[in-house]
Amino acid sequence: MKELEERIRKEGTVKPGNVLKVDAFLNHQCDVTLFDHMGAAWAEHFAGRTITKILTIEASGIGIACIAARHFDGVPVVFAKKAQSINLDGEQYTTTVYSFTKQKEFPVIVAKKYLSAGDHVLLIDDFLANGKALHGLIDLCKEAGAVVEGIGIAVEKGFQGGGDTLRAEGYDVDSLAIVESMDAETGEITFRD
């Protein structure tokens, strides 16, 4: 998606440790118009698939998933929580994932009443690096008996291999911008064609 690539080039900042900051428009301050265009792109890519739920992970995926859901005719958005709380009641699906940006493991939890056998799920997230978070969401779907119909990603770091692994496993991953390389010293970012 050229629009997203241009925003990354213009406003993204490359930090040491393979960190790409896009908080000016994607995951701190949110450009809702851009999110809407992203949702339209995913709706076009996944047209013809049965989607009954959109599943994301807190926190950065929530806004993107909610705006994208407008293009999927009333499909609800469910987000996996990263911590147990008194608000989580009843039976739950849980797994543990490693966060590249936070450099630690955390629990991922979805109440069983919001994810069930027979659901056809579109996973949406802001970033895909090594794929650990997405594999966690896939594990939750498998545990629930839900079918993963596809994965929509805003920014994939292609050089970290997570997207390639998911595609090799048979998942339809639609990443709107795939970063091929980035340099913290020069700030240069290149994209996969």
From TrEMBL:
EC number(s) recorded for this UniProt protein: 2.4.2.22
Major localisation: cytoplasm
Subcellular location: Cytoplasm
GO BP, sorted A to Z: purine ribonucleoside salvage; xanthine metabolic process; XMP salvage
InterPro entries (UniProt xref): PRTase-like (IPR029057), PRTase_dom (IPR000836), Pur/Pyrimidine_PRTase (IPR050118), Xanthine_PRibTrfase (IPR010079)
Keyword Glycosyltransferase: yes
Domain of life: Bacteria
Domain Phosphoribosyltransferase: 40-155
GO annotation, cellular component aspect: cytoplasm
Leading EC class: transferase
GO molecular function term, any single one: xanthine phosphoribosyltransferase activity
Positions of 5-phospho-alpha-D-ribose 1-diphosphate binding: A129, N130, G131, K132, A133
Keywords associated with the record: Cytoplasm, Glycosyltransferase, Purine salvage, Transferase
The protein's annotated pathway: Purine metabolism; XMP biosynthesis via salvage pathway; XMP from xanthine: step 1/1
Keyword hit for Transferase: yes
Binding residue positions for xanthine: L20, N27, K157
Catalysed reactions, as listed in the record: XMP + diphosphate = xanthine + 5-phospho-alpha-D-ribose 1-diphosphate
PANTHER family in alphabetical order: HYPOXANTHINE/GUANINE PHOSPHORIBOSYLTRANSFERASE, XANTHINE PHOSPHORIBOSYLTRANSFERASE
NCBIfam families recorded: PRK09219.1 (NF006671), XPRTase (TIGR01744)
Function: Converts the preformed base xanthine, a product of nucleic acid breakdown, to xanthosine 5'-monophosphate (XMP), so it can be reused for RNA or DNA synthesis.
Protein family membership: Belongs to the purine/pyrimidine phosphoribosyltransferase family. Xpt subfamily.
Subunit structure and binding partners: Homodimer.
Name this polypeptide is given: Xanthine phosphoribosyltransferase
Species of provenance: Bifidobacterium callitrichos
Gene: xpt
